[in-house]
Design goal:
The protein is an alpha/beta fold and 135 residues long. The chain has two domains: 11-63, Signal recognition particle alu RNA binding heterodimer, srp9/1; 70-129, 2,3-Dihydroxybiphenyl 1,2-Dioxygenase, domain 1 (Roll), CATH 3.10.180.10. Helix content is 17%, strand content 28%. The protein is built from two helices and eight strands. It has helices spanning 21-32, 81-91, and strands at residues 13-18, 35-37, 44-48, 56-61, 74-78, 94-95, 107-111, 117-122. A four-stranded mixed beta sheet has the order 1-4-3-2, with helices on one face.
Length: 135
C-alpha cells in the first residue's frame, strides 16, 4: 500500500486523566513551560506551548483506573537531563525504578504527582527536535 501524501493528520493534543485538575495544571505548566488556554472548565484544561509549536497537553478530570505499567507515556527531551530531572523532582515528580532499565539507558523514568509516568530523555546530542546543542 502506498503512503498517502497530502492531507495528513497531525498530533494535536495528548490527554492525561487526572484527579486534582488544579494541581496537575500547576505541575505540567511548570514542567513544560506551557500556558493554559482559557477558559478552563471544572473538569478539563488545555495547556499549549507559548509559541504554538508542538502538541497540546489536555488534562481531563475524569476517574480512571491506574494501570502499571501504563500503555502509553510521554517522552520529554532534555538538553540537560540531570538539571531537568532535578527540576522536575522539585515540582513533585518522583523517580520510578525498573529492574530491566539498561545501565547505559539515555532515559530516566519518572511520574508526576498523581503517578502518570513519563521519561526524560538525554537529547543533548540530538539534532532535529528543535534544539541544537549550545543553543
Amino acid at each position: 500500500m502506498r503512503a498517502y501524501v497530502g492531507a495528513m493528520l497531525a498530533l494535536g493534543s495528548v490527554v492525561i486523566r487526572v484527579d486534582n485538575l488544579a494541581g496537575q495544571i500547576e505541575f505540567w505548566s511548570k514542567a513544560l513551560g506551557y500556558v493554559v488556554r482559557q477558559p478552563v472548565g471544572e473538569d478539563f484544561a488545555l495547556l499549549h506551548p507559548p509559541r504554538g509549536a508542538g502538541p497540546n497537553l489536555s488534562l481531563d478530570a475524569h476517574p480512571s483506573e491506574r494501570v502499571v505499567p501504563p500503555r502509553i507515556h510521554l517522552d520529554l527531551y532534555a538538553r540537560d537531563q540531570s538539571a531537568e530531572v532535578d527540576r522536575l523532582r522539585g515540582l513533585g515528580a518522583r523517580d520510578v525504578h525498573w529492574d530491566r532499565r539498561p545501565s547505559d539507558a539515555d532515559y530516566v523514568i519518572m511520574e508526576d504527582p498523581e503517578g502518570n509516568r513519563f521519561c526524560v530523555i538525554d537529547a543533548a546530542q540530538w539534532q532535529g527536535w528543535g534544539v541544537t546543542r549550545g543553543a
